[in-house]
Design goal:
Layout lengths: L1 H29 L2 H8 L19 H11 L3 E7 L8 E7 L15 E4 L6 E5 L11 H11 L10 H24 L18 H15 L1 H15 L1 H10 L24 H14 L6 E7 L4 E6 L15 E5 L5 E5 L6 H14 L4 H41 L13
Antiparallel strand pairs: 1-2, 1-5, 2-3, 3-4, 5-6, 6-7, 7-8
Helix pairs in contact: 1-4, 1-5, 1-11, 5-7, 6-11, 7-8, 7-10
Protein backbone atom coordinates (compact mmCIF):
# COMPACT_ATOMS: atom_id res chain seq x y z
CA UNK A 1 0.00 0.00 0.00
CA UNK A 2 2.83 2.40 0.84
CA UNK A 3 4.32 2.28 -2.71
CA UNK A 4 0.91 3.22 -4.14
CA UNK A 5 0.49 6.09 -1.70
CA UNK A 6 4.03 7.30 -2.43
CA UNK A 7 3.26 7.28 -6.14
CA UNK A 8 0.05 9.24 -5.59
CA UNK A 9 1.88 11.75 -3.38
CA UNK A 10 4.51 12.20 -6.06
CA UNK A 11 2.07 12.94 -8.88
CA UNK A 12 -0.41 14.90 -6.79
CA UNK A 13 2.48 16.95 -5.44
CA UNK A 14 3.92 17.64 -8.89
CA UNK A 15 0.50 18.76 -10.12
CA UNK A 16 -0.11 21.25 -7.32
CA UNK A 17 3.45 22.32 -6.41
CA UNK A 18 3.79 25.35 -8.68
CA UNK A 19 0.27 26.57 -7.92
CA UNK A 20 0.72 26.16 -4.16
CA UNK A 21 4.05 27.98 -4.38
CA UNK A 22 2.26 30.93 -5.97
CA UNK A 23 -0.68 30.70 -3.56
CA UNK A 24 1.63 30.45 -0.55
CA UNK A 25 3.72 33.50 -1.42
CA UNK A 26 0.77 35.62 -2.49
CA UNK A 27 -1.22 34.55 0.59
CA UNK A 28 1.64 35.66 2.84
CA UNK A 29 1.50 39.09 1.19
CA UNK A 30 -2.25 39.69 1.00
CA UNK A 31 -2.66 38.92 4.69
CA UNK A 32 -1.58 42.58 4.92
CA UNK A 33 -3.20 43.88 1.73
CA UNK A 34 -4.81 46.93 3.31
CA UNK A 35 -1.63 48.07 5.04
CA UNK A 36 0.66 47.46 2.04
CA UNK A 37 -1.72 49.01 -0.47
CA UNK A 38 -2.09 52.12 1.66
CA UNK A 39 1.69 52.58 1.55
CA UNK A 40 1.88 52.05 -2.21
CA UNK A 41 -1.28 53.98 -3.07
CA UNK A 42 -2.10 56.53 -0.37
CA UNK A 43 -4.58 58.26 -2.69
CA UNK A 44 -7.11 55.49 -2.02
CA UNK A 45 -6.69 55.76 1.75
CA UNK A 46 -5.51 59.21 2.84
CA UNK A 47 -6.21 62.84 2.01
CA UNK A 48 -4.24 66.01 2.68
CA UNK A 49 -6.49 68.72 4.11
CA UNK A 50 -4.06 71.39 2.89
CA UNK A 51 -4.91 70.60 -0.74
CA UNK A 52 -8.67 70.75 -0.27
CA UNK A 53 -9.24 74.42 0.57
CA UNK A 54 -11.63 73.44 3.37
CA UNK A 55 -11.42 71.73 6.74
CA UNK A 56 -14.87 70.17 6.66
CA UNK A 57 -14.98 66.45 5.97
CA UNK A 58 -18.08 65.40 4.08
CA UNK A 59 -19.94 62.23 5.07
CA UNK A 60 -19.50 59.21 2.77
CA UNK A 61 -23.08 59.56 1.51
CA UNK A 62 -22.50 63.24 0.71
CA UNK A 63 -19.29 62.36 -1.12
CA UNK A 64 -21.07 59.64 -3.12
CA UNK A 65 -23.94 61.96 -4.06
CA UNK A 66 -21.57 64.72 -5.18
CA UNK A 67 -19.41 62.29 -7.17
CA UNK A 68 -22.40 60.82 -9.02
CA UNK A 69 -23.76 64.32 -9.72
CA UNK A 70 -20.46 65.39 -11.22
CA UNK A 71 -20.04 62.09 -13.10
CA UNK A 72 -23.57 61.20 -14.32
CA UNK A 73 -22.22 58.40 -16.51
CA UNK A 74 -20.94 56.54 -13.40
CA UNK A 75 -22.45 55.16 -10.21
CA UNK A 76 -20.90 53.74 -7.07
CA UNK A 77 -21.36 50.00 -6.54
CA UNK A 78 -19.54 49.73 -3.20
CA UNK A 79 -18.53 52.31 -0.63
CA UNK A 80 -17.70 52.51 3.07
CA UNK A 81 -20.20 54.26 5.31
CA UNK A 82 -17.56 55.53 7.72
CA UNK A 83 -14.05 56.81 7.09
CA UNK A 84 -10.85 56.10 8.93
CA UNK A 85 -9.15 59.06 10.56
CA UNK A 86 -7.78 61.34 7.81
CA UNK A 87 -9.05 58.72 5.37
CA UNK A 88 -10.16 59.04 1.74
CA UNK A 89 -13.32 57.40 0.41
CA UNK A 90 -12.29 54.31 -1.55
CA UNK A 91 -15.23 53.21 -3.71
CA UNK A 92 -15.94 50.77 -6.52
CA UNK A 93 -17.68 52.25 -9.57
CA UNK A 94 -19.40 51.08 -12.75
CA UNK A 95 -20.68 52.81 -15.90
CA UNK A 96 -24.37 53.49 -16.35
CA UNK A 97 -26.16 51.99 -19.33
CA UNK A 98 -27.03 54.88 -21.67
CA UNK A 99 -30.66 55.30 -22.67
CA UNK A 100 -31.47 53.09 -25.62
CA UNK A 101 -28.23 51.05 -25.31
CA UNK A 102 -28.02 47.32 -24.64
CA UNK A 103 -24.98 47.46 -22.41
CA UNK A 104 -22.77 49.86 -20.52
CA UNK A 105 -19.63 51.30 -22.15
CA UNK A 106 -16.22 49.97 -21.21
CA UNK A 107 -14.20 51.71 -18.49
CA UNK A 108 -10.47 51.57 -17.88
CA UNK A 109 -11.01 51.84 -14.12
CA UNK A 110 -13.45 50.45 -11.54
CA UNK A 111 -12.12 51.91 -8.28
CA UNK A 112 -11.65 55.50 -7.21
CA UNK A 113 -10.23 57.27 -4.18
CA UNK A 114 -12.20 60.44 -3.38
CA UNK A 115 -10.94 63.40 -1.40
CA UNK A 116 -13.12 63.47 1.75
CA UNK A 117 -13.30 67.29 1.65
CA UNK A 118 -14.13 67.90 -2.02
CA UNK A 119 -15.17 64.54 -3.55
CA UNK A 120 -12.48 65.03 -6.21
CA UNK A 121 -10.90 61.89 -7.67
CA UNK A 122 -7.37 61.66 -6.27
CA UNK A 123 -6.68 58.07 -7.40
CA UNK A 124 -8.24 55.52 -9.74
CA UNK A 125 -7.43 52.08 -11.10
CA UNK A 126 -8.88 48.91 -12.52
CA UNK A 127 -8.94 46.55 -9.53
CA UNK A 128 -7.65 43.13 -10.61
CA UNK A 129 -5.95 44.28 -13.80
CA UNK A 130 -3.00 42.24 -15.02
CA UNK A 131 -0.38 44.84 -14.24
CA UNK A 132 2.60 45.25 -11.95
CA UNK A 133 2.28 49.02 -11.87
CA UNK A 134 2.34 50.56 -8.41
CA UNK A 135 -1.40 51.21 -8.31
CA UNK A 136 -2.26 47.71 -9.53
CA UNK A 137 0.30 45.60 -7.66
CA UNK A 138 -1.68 44.55 -4.56
CA UNK A 139 -4.96 43.89 -6.42
CA UNK A 140 -2.95 41.92 -9.02
CA UNK A 141 -1.40 39.77 -6.27
CA UNK A 142 -4.77 39.33 -4.54
CA UNK A 143 -6.50 38.06 -7.69
CA UNK A 144 -3.47 35.94 -8.63
CA UNK A 145 -3.86 34.18 -5.28
CA UNK A 146 -7.31 32.76 -5.95
CA UNK A 147 -7.60 32.64 -9.76
CA UNK A 148 -4.11 32.88 -11.31
CA UNK A 149 -5.71 35.51 -13.60
CA UNK A 150 -6.95 32.70 -15.86
CA UNK A 151 -9.57 34.28 -18.16
CA UNK A 152 -13.23 33.32 -17.73
CA UNK A 153 -14.92 31.22 -20.40
CA UNK A 154 -18.26 32.92 -20.81
CA UNK A 155 -19.98 32.72 -17.43
CA UNK A 156 -17.53 30.10 -16.16
CA UNK A 157 -14.95 31.47 -13.71
CA UNK A 158 -12.20 29.25 -15.04
CA UNK A 159 -9.40 30.41 -12.77
CA UNK A 160 -11.47 30.08 -9.59
CA UNK A 161 -12.61 26.59 -10.62
CA UNK A 162 -9.06 25.53 -11.46
CA UNK A 163 -7.69 26.69 -8.12
CA UNK A 164 -10.60 24.89 -6.49
CA UNK A 165 -9.45 21.67 -8.17
CA UNK A 166 -5.94 22.37 -6.89
CA UNK A 167 -7.42 22.73 -3.41
CA UNK A 168 -9.27 19.43 -3.74
CA UNK A 169 -6.11 17.58 -4.81
CA UNK A 170 -4.22 19.30 -1.99
CA UNK A 171 -6.82 18.14 0.54
CA UNK A 172 -6.48 14.51 -0.60
CA UNK A 173 -2.70 14.78 -0.62
CA UNK A 174 -2.69 16.07 2.96
CA UNK A 175 -3.92 12.68 4.17
CA UNK A 176 -1.65 10.75 1.81
CA UNK A 177 1.42 12.74 2.91
CA UNK A 178 0.61 12.19 6.58
CA UNK A 179 0.25 8.43 6.11
CA UNK A 180 3.59 7.99 4.35
CA UNK A 181 5.37 10.31 6.81
CA UNK A 182 4.99 7.66 9.53
CA UNK A 183 6.38 4.42 8.04
CA UNK A 184 6.24 2.59 11.38
CA UNK A 185 5.49 3.16 15.06
CA UNK A 186 9.10 2.43 15.92
CA UNK A 187 10.35 5.33 13.81
CA UNK A 188 7.63 7.93 14.40
CA UNK A 189 10.04 10.33 16.12
CA UNK A 190 12.02 10.63 12.89
CA UNK A 191 9.01 12.24 11.25
CA UNK A 192 9.30 15.21 13.61
CA UNK A 193 13.11 15.54 13.54
CA UNK A 194 15.38 17.85 11.54
CA UNK A 195 18.92 16.63 10.87
CA UNK A 196 20.44 20.09 10.66
CA UNK A 197 24.04 18.87 10.81
CA UNK A 198 23.63 16.31 8.04
CA UNK A 199 24.02 16.59 4.29
CA UNK A 200 22.08 19.09 2.21
CA UNK A 201 19.99 16.26 0.78
CA UNK A 202 18.90 15.08 4.23
CA UNK A 203 18.11 18.60 5.42
CA UNK A 204 15.98 19.19 2.31
CA UNK A 205 14.15 15.92 2.91
CA UNK A 206 13.51 16.76 6.57
CA UNK A 207 12.28 20.24 5.72
CA UNK A 208 9.74 18.68 3.39
CA UNK A 209 8.62 15.74 5.54
CA UNK A 210 9.06 16.98 9.10
CA UNK A 211 8.17 20.55 8.19
CA UNK A 212 4.88 19.31 6.76
CA UNK A 213 4.18 17.11 9.78
CA UNK A 214 4.64 19.94 12.28
CA UNK A 215 2.10 22.19 10.56
CA UNK A 216 -0.12 19.44 9.13
CA UNK A 217 -3.25 20.61 10.96
CA UNK A 218 -2.86 24.15 9.62
CA UNK A 219 -2.21 22.83 6.11
CA UNK A 220 -5.41 20.80 6.33
CA UNK A 221 -7.39 23.89 7.36
CA UNK A 222 -5.92 25.83 4.45
CA UNK A 223 -6.78 23.07 1.99
CA UNK A 224 -10.37 22.78 3.23
CA UNK A 225 -10.95 26.52 3.24
CA UNK A 226 -9.39 26.88 -0.21
CA UNK A 227 -11.80 24.28 -1.51
CA UNK A 228 -14.71 25.96 0.28
CA UNK A 229 -14.12 29.36 -1.25
CA UNK A 230 -13.39 28.19 -4.80
CA UNK A 231 -15.71 25.18 -5.11
CA UNK A 232 -18.17 26.03 -2.36
CA UNK A 233 -21.39 25.64 -4.31
CA UNK A 234 -20.09 22.74 -6.42
CA UNK A 235 -18.50 20.58 -3.71
CA UNK A 236 -18.49 21.84 -0.13
CA UNK A 237 -22.05 23.04 0.35
CA UNK A 238 -23.56 19.81 -1.07
CA UNK A 239 -21.38 17.76 1.30
CA UNK A 240 -22.12 19.95 4.32
CA UNK A 241 -25.80 19.81 3.37
CA UNK A 242 -25.76 16.04 3.93
CA UNK A 243 -25.12 16.66 7.63
CA UNK A 244 -26.81 19.98 8.33
CA UNK A 245 -29.43 22.22 6.75
CA UNK A 246 -27.87 25.19 4.96
CA UNK A 247 -29.67 28.50 4.65
CA UNK A 248 -29.44 29.64 1.01
CA UNK A 249 -28.00 33.11 0.51
CA UNK A 250 -30.11 35.69 -1.32
CA UNK A 251 -27.70 35.44 -4.24
CA UNK A 252 -28.35 31.72 -4.63
CA UNK A 253 -32.06 32.44 -4.98
CA UNK A 254 -31.51 34.89 -7.82
CA UNK A 255 -30.56 34.44 -11.43
CA UNK A 256 -27.79 36.71 -12.67
CA UNK A 257 -28.98 38.89 -15.53
CA UNK A 258 -28.38 42.20 -17.28
CA UNK A 259 -27.41 45.06 -14.97
CA UNK A 260 -30.40 46.97 -13.56
CA UNK A 261 -30.65 50.22 -11.63
CA UNK A 262 -32.28 50.17 -8.17
CA UNK A 263 -35.60 51.86 -7.43
CA UNK A 264 -34.47 52.70 -3.87
CA UNK A 265 -31.56 54.97 -3.06
CA UNK A 266 -28.82 54.21 -0.55
CA UNK A 267 -30.29 56.35 2.21
CA UNK A 268 -33.59 54.51 2.25
CA UNK A 269 -31.85 51.12 2.21
CA UNK A 270 -29.55 52.18 5.05
CA UNK A 271 -32.57 53.24 7.12
CA UNK A 272 -34.15 49.83 6.55
CA UNK A 273 -30.85 48.13 7.40
CA UNK A 274 -30.60 49.96 10.71
CA UNK A 275 -34.13 48.89 11.63
CA UNK A 276 -33.38 45.29 10.69
CA UNK A 277 -30.05 45.38 12.52
CA UNK A 278 -31.81 46.39 15.72
CA UNK A 279 -34.19 43.45 15.31
CA UNK A 280 -31.21 41.11 14.75
CA UNK A 281 -29.38 42.59 17.77
CA UNK A 282 -26.44 43.73 15.64
CA UNK A 283 -24.42 46.23 17.66
CA UNK A 284 -21.57 46.97 15.24
CA UNK A 285 -21.73 50.35 13.43
CA UNK A 286 -22.64 50.79 9.78
CA UNK A 287 -19.58 49.83 7.77
CA UNK A 288 -20.34 49.68 4.07
CA UNK A 289 -22.96 49.33 1.36
CA UNK A 290 -22.88 47.75 -2.09
CA UNK A 291 -25.31 47.27 -4.92
CA UNK A 292 -25.12 44.24 -7.22
CA UNK A 293 -26.62 45.34 -10.56
CA UNK A 294 -26.62 41.78 -11.92
CA UNK A 295 -28.88 40.52 -9.12
CA UNK A 296 -30.63 43.73 -8.09
CA UNK A 297 -29.56 43.30 -4.45
CA UNK A 298 -28.22 45.78 -1.95
CA UNK A 299 -25.91 44.62 0.83
CA UNK A 300 -25.24 46.58 4.01
CA UNK A 301 -22.34 45.57 6.25
CA UNK A 302 -21.67 46.41 9.88
CA UNK A 303 -18.07 46.93 11.00
CA UNK A 304 -15.63 49.59 12.10
CA UNK A 305 -13.69 51.59 9.46
CA UNK A 306 -10.97 49.60 7.73
CA UNK A 307 -12.31 46.24 8.91
CA UNK A 308 -14.30 45.30 5.81
CA UNK A 309 -12.49 41.91 5.74
CA UNK A 310 -13.35 41.30 9.39
CA UNK A 311 -10.80 41.24 12.17
CA UNK A 312 -11.54 38.63 14.82
CA UNK A 313 -14.30 36.05 15.16
CA UNK A 314 -16.54 34.91 12.30
CA UNK A 315 -16.46 38.13 10.32
CA UNK A 316 -18.94 40.94 9.76
CA UNK A 317 -22.75 40.90 9.66
CA UNK A 318 -24.32 41.63 6.26
CA UNK A 319 -27.98 42.33 5.52
CA UNK A 320 -29.45 42.19 2.02
CA UNK A 321 -32.35 44.10 0.44
CA UNK A 322 -34.17 43.99 -2.87
CA UNK A 323 -33.23 47.02 -4.96
CA UNK A 324 -36.66 47.17 -6.63
CA UNK A 325 -38.95 46.66 -3.64
CA UNK A 326 -36.71 47.53 -0.70
CA UNK A 327 -37.78 44.28 0.99
CA UNK A 328 -35.40 42.48 3.36
CA UNK A 329 -33.94 39.52 1.46
CA UNK A 330 -31.92 37.82 4.22
CA UNK A 331 -28.61 38.19 5.95
CA UNK A 332 -25.35 36.63 7.04
CA UNK A 333 -25.00 37.14 10.78
CA UNK A 334 -21.89 35.60 12.39
CA UNK A 335 -22.72 32.90 14.93
CA UNK A 336 -26.35 32.62 13.86
CA UNK A 337 -27.92 29.89 11.78
CA UNK A 338 -27.57 26.14 11.57
CA UNK A 339 -24.38 24.22 12.30
CA UNK A 340 -23.78 24.09 8.55
CA UNK A 341 -24.24 27.86 8.25
CA UNK A 342 -21.68 28.49 10.98
CA UNK A 343 -19.26 26.04 9.37
CA UNK A 344 -19.47 28.03 6.14
CA UNK A 345 -19.05 31.29 8.05
CA UNK A 346 -15.76 29.94 9.40
CA UNK A 347 -14.14 29.46 6.01
CA UNK A 348 -12.83 32.93 5.14
CA UNK A 349 -11.88 33.92 8.72
CA UNK A 350 -9.88 30.69 9.03
CA UNK A 351 -8.29 30.96 5.60
CA UNK A 352 -7.24 34.57 6.09
CA UNK A 353 -6.28 34.12 9.76
CA UNK A 354 -8.55 37.02 10.65
CA UNK A 355 -10.49 34.80 13.01
CA UNK A 356 -7.65 35.52 15.46
CA UNK A 357 -7.04 39.14 14.49
CA UNK A 358 -3.47 40.31 13.95
CA UNK A 359 -2.01 37.15 15.50
CA UNK A 360 -3.91 35.02 13.02
CA UNK A 361 -2.63 37.07 10.11
CA UNK A 362 0.94 36.63 11.33
CA UNK A 363 0.38 32.86 11.43
CA UNK A 364 -1.05 32.90 7.91
CA UNK A 365 1.96 34.85 6.64
CA UNK A 366 4.37 32.32 8.13
CA UNK A 367 2.26 29.42 6.89
CA UNK A 368 2.22 30.86 3.37
CA UNK A 369 6.02 30.89 3.35
CA UNK A 370 6.07 27.31 4.70
CA UNK A 371 3.71 26.18 1.91
CA UNK A 372 6.03 27.75 -0.66
CA UNK A 373 9.00 25.99 0.98
CA UNK A 374 7.23 22.62 0.95
CA UNK A 375 6.47 23.06 -2.76
CA UNK A 376 10.10 23.85 -3.60
CA UNK A 377 11.61 21.05 -1.47
CA UNK A 378 9.09 18.58 -2.91
CA UNK A 379 10.21 19.37 -6.45
CA UNK A 380 13.89 19.18 -5.44
CA UNK A 381 13.37 15.74 -3.86
CA UNK A 382 11.46 14.50 -6.91
CA UNK A 383 14.16 15.77 -9.29
CA UNK A 384 16.91 14.15 -7.21
CA UNK A 385 15.13 10.80 -7.08
CA UNK A 386 14.38 11.00 -10.78
CA UNK A 387 18.07 11.53 -11.56
CA UNK A 388 18.90 8.60 -9.30
CA UNK A 389 16.40 6.32 -11.05
CA UNK A 390 17.66 7.34 -14.49
CA UNK A 391 21.27 6.78 -13.44
CA UNK A 392 20.35 3.34 -12.09
CA UNK A 393 18.64 2.38 -15.35
CA UNK A 394 21.63 3.49 -17.41
CA UNK A 395 24.07 1.67 -15.11
CA UNK A 396 22.01 -1.53 -15.14
CA UNK A 397 21.80 -1.45 -18.92
CA UNK A 398 25.60 -1.23 -19.01
CA UNK A 399 26.08 -3.87 -16.36
CA UNK A 400 27.47 -1.36 -13.84
CA UNK A 401 26.36 -1.15 -10.20
CA UNK A 402 25.99 2.55 -9.26
CA UNK A 403 27.63 3.68 -6.03
CA UNK A 404 26.86 7.34 -5.57
CA UNK A 405 23.33 7.89 -6.81
CA UNK A 406 21.22 6.73 -3.91
CA UNK A 407 18.25 8.91 -3.03
CA UNK A 408 17.73 10.07 0.53
CA UNK A 409 15.84 7.29 2.36
CA UNK A 410 12.26 7.91 3.46
Amino acid sequence: MRPILSLLHRWFGLFIAVFLFIAGLTGAIIAWDHELDSVLNPGFYHADESTSGTSTVKSPLELAAQFEKEHPDLYITFMPLALEEDGALSAMVAPRVPAGADKAPELDFNQVGLNPYTAEIQAKREWGAISLARENLLPFIYKLHYSLHIPDLGSIQTGILFMGIVGLVWLLDCFIALSISFPSRAHWKKSFAFRWGSSRQKVTFDLHRSGGVWVWGLLLIMAITSLSMNLGSQVVRPIVGLFSTLTPSPFELRAFGNPTQPAFNRESIIARAQTQAAAEEITAPLGGIFYSPETGLYGVGFYTPGKDHGDGGLGNPWLYFDGKTGAYAGGTIPGKGTAGDIFMQLQFPLHSGRIAGTTGRVVVTILGLVIAMLSVTGIIIWARKRRSRLATRVSNSNGIVPLGNRAVPD
